[in-house]
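Subgroup meeting minutes
Present: P.N., E.W., G.H.
Scribe: E.W.

1. P.N. recapped why we're keeping a running log of single-chain structure predictions: easier to compare across weeks, and new members can see raw inputs and outputs side by side.
2. G.H. added today's entry (121 aa).
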Amino acid sequence: QVQLVESGGGLVQPGGSLRLSCAASGSIFIVTDMGWYRQGPGKQRELVASIISGGSTNYADSVKGRFTISSDNAKNTVFLQLDSLKPEDTAVYYCHAKIVPRLFMGAEDYWGKGTLVTVSS
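Output recorded in log:
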């Protein structure tokens, strides 16, 4: 079994910052990439940012220059630094990972339960 556990959400004023963390644990042979998605009220889930094991990153246009994704590969942990937050960033943020559980198995998708980020004055 693989588990993704997120932390770091909360209430913040516009212009403020938060740092989200997500740690993967359990039966893990290799993590190929990790990332963050979000789902705002009445919206579909969308990719926010992702990072592959080699360090390359990808961001949604709406967060470029404001959010930064990073990882600690040794700890199978991914972070998302959220700066200059806007009310439209309000959403449940979900951690995602592609993980090969065991040798000779293919990569599988895993999701965390989500952490709520609310940007409001």
